[in-house]
């Protein structure tokens, strides 16, 4: 059985949750006797692919900030994927994003579509940059797909709410913990504050950073030894710097880049609390990552986070700064609660293994081939 993955999510991105998902799948399948795969990709700066032996794309790092160059390589990658599709040397096609360029090329070959979230459907009008126009493309792909993999029950509910799709062809396959690396625990190579609350990833749009900062500021003003560390997501924008300065907490709010998994593990492991105030996520990998590193988590209620953290998390209403503030103070000022949350988190993590994600995805492929 041979699966063909296309170029989409690996074009123009160095990192990202979706490219990490497909990278981890292919890593799990490499050397597996039950499956062959091919990644149709010629040009990429994706860091996950840097040291793999199944793909050797040409890197163009020196031109990464040039939109015209990115567009050119995207077109060349699409042409390469289209050629591979036309040759038909595969049993299953699994596109890595939602563009429909391949619909007239895949023929009658079985197709699997992984659906990551309904952010553009729920918040596209509020934040057009999320891709309000993606909905039409997604609908086309949902109609064509033989099986749709949803990364969470919450995302499945969203698919059924916003799209016309046969529920019977949706399979929920939760993501796994890609940060399951015990050898990284206990390292202390980073210079970090003694006490800090951690925010990880992008801070714009639905990530709800502004409300979170408004909730965090009065805590920081009252507790001068406490810090907020924002990891990854790029350096603070001018607008974020303005908000931080106006709040009077500029000496206590720090940015820290994420160089690799070793960096990320230390950031989680040494934090008093990880806060994830997103309005919505398709799954919420950082919640799982934090718990695997023994970091208590405070998250938005009524999202996919409930499926991951269950009783291991403290919950708040994302649009209420008072609710967020109350949740943060509840955890950081109680050593007993922090200990309980760490233990509950450790108990949740084994339910989400990367190997299980790969195994269940392989079962989906086999179901299609044997149909």
In words, what does this structure look like?
With 371 residues, this protein is an alpha/beta fold. It has helices spanning 17-29, 67-87, 119-123, 134-144, 153-162, 209-222, 238-247, 261-269, 285-292, 305-309, 321-332, 335-348, 354-369; strands spanning 2-5, 36-39, 92-94, 112-115, 147-150, 170-172, 195-200, 226-231, 253-256, 273-276, 297-300, 313-316. It folds into two domains: 2-176 and 353-369, Glycogen Phosphorylase B (Rossmann fold, 3-Layer(aba) Sandwich); 182-351, Glycogen Phosphorylase B (Rossmann fold), CATH 3.40.50.2000. The strands form three sheets. Strands 9-8-7-10-11-12 form a six-stranded parallel β-sheet, sandwiched between helices. Strands 2-1-3 form a three-stranded parallel β-sheet, covered by helices on one side. Helix 1 crosses helix 13, helix 6 (209-222) packs parallel to helix 7 (238-247) and helix 9 (285-292) packs across helix 12 (335-348). The model has no long low-confidence stretch (mean pLDDT 95).
Structural class: alpha/beta
Helicity range = 25-40%
What is the count of distinct domains?
A: 2
Q: How many beta-strand runs?
A: 12
Number of helices: 13
Work out the strand percent: 5-15%
- Main sheet, how many strands, which sense, barrel? 6 strands, parallel
Q: From the 3D structure, determine the CATH topology of the largest domain.
A: Rossmann fold
Order of helices and strands: EHEHEEHHEHEEHEHEHEHEHEHHH
The 3D shape can be described as: globular
Please identify the top-level CATH class of the largest domain: Alpha Beta
Q: Could you report the average pLDDT, rounded to the nearest whole number?
A: 95
Main sheet strand line-up: 9-8-7-10-11-12
State the fourth-level CATH superfamily of the largest domain: Glycogen Phosphorylase B
End-to-end distance? 13 Å
Protein name: Glycosyltransferase family 1 protein
GO molecular function, one term: glycosyltransferase activity
GO biological process, one term: lipopolysaccharide biosynthetic process
Keywords: Transferase
């Amino acid at each position: 059985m041979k699966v063909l993955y296309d170029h989409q999510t690996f074009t123009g991105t160095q990192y990202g949750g979706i490219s990490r998902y497909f990278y981890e799948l292919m890593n799990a399948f490499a050397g597996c006797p039950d499956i062959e795969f091919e990644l149709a990709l010629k040009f990429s700066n994706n860091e996950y692919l840097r040291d793999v032996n199944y793909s050797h794309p040409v890197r163009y790092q020196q031109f990464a900030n040039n939109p015209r160059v990115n567009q050119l390589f995207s077109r060349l990658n699409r042409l390469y994927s289209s050629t591979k599709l036309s040759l038909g040397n595969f049993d299953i096609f699994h596109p890595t994003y939602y563009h429909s360029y391949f619909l007239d090329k895949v023929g009658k070959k079985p197709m699997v579509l992984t659906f990551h979230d309904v952010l553009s459907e729920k918040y596209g009008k509020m934040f057009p940059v999320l891709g309000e126009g993606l909905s039409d493309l997604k609908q086309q792909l949902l109609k064509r797909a033989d099986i749709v993999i949803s990364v969470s029950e919450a995302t499945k509910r969203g698919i059924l709410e916003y799209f016309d799709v046969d529920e019977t062809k949706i399979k929920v396959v939760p993501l796994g913990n890609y940060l399951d690396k015990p050898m990284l625990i206990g390292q202390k190579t980073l210079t970090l504050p003694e006490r800090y609350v951690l925010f990880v990833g992008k801070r714009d749009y639905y990530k709800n950073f502004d409300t979170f900062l408004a909730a965090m500021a009065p805590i920081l003003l009252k507790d001068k030894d406490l810090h907020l560390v924002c990891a990854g997501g790029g350096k603070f924008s001018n607008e974020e710097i303005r908000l931080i300065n106006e709040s009077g907490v500029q000496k206590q709010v720090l940015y820290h880049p994420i160089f690799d998994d070793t960096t990320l593990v230390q950031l989680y492991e040494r934090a008093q609390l990880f806060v994830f105030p997103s309005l919505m996520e398709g799954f919420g990998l950082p919640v799982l990552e934090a718990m695997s590193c023994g970091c208590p988590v405070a998250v938005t209620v009524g999202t996919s986070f409930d499926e991951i953290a269950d009783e291991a998390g403290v919950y708040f209403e994302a649009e209420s700064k008072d609710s967020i503030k109350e949740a943060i103070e509840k955890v950081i000022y109680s050593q007993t609660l922090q200990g309980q949350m760490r233990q509950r988190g450790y108990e949740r993590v084994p339910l989400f293994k990367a190997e299980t994600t790969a195994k269940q995805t392989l079962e989906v492929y086999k179901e299609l081939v044997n149909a």
